[in-house]
Here is the input.
Amino acid sequence: SAVISQKPSRDICQRGTSLTIQCQVDSQVTMMFWYRQQPGQSLTLIATANQGSEATYESGFVIDKFPISRPNLTFSTLTVSNMSPEDSSIYLCSVRGQANTEAFFGQGTRLTVV
Amino acid sequence: DQQVKQNSPSLSVQEGRISILNCDYTNSMFDYFLWYKKYPAEGPTFLISISSIKDKNEDGRFTVFLNKSAKHLSLHIVPSQPGDSAVYFCAASGRGVTSGSRLTFGEGTQLTVNP
Here is the structure.
């Protein structure tokens, strides 16, 4: 199992500003994942963060809007840049050791953009 | 393209009865399926999973059934308890180093268990 600490747990931000979300894992993992859950919707994968290489972004998500850092095997950050009200969502960090095992999630960051 | 679908946004059952949550998928490359429970203001919590080589997996009150030919899986909770009230997400993953690690989620079903 893995324990994931994610912060902040919530924030209210002005449009046009940026917010950086931090994710700390209690063990070393190769891949970390960032998801978004818009109100009333499913969890959508934003990107996969690999240590030592560029993050891999899913269709519809770009690095300029969601830059990701992965400085080591236990830590990652996701920045939501130039925010608009449409970015109001829950953002979740996740890790999964290997295929055919469960994934673990942080408690999420509830972002409201006004 | 929604590859994992949960067609019922909500389900309400009486305490002590069975809850059945359904999930359909379209991608035949999916070979591992998971159910998560999510309370408000918390991250999803893993409940139970099943590999495509099985058709049933049981863990206490929770049983997951997989029908590969129909590309359908279901989660049975027996007996249902008020503390089970939460949003339940179905998720799937495929083969390969990358696709085997990423999860594709359904839209979720809000389960309400009434005392």
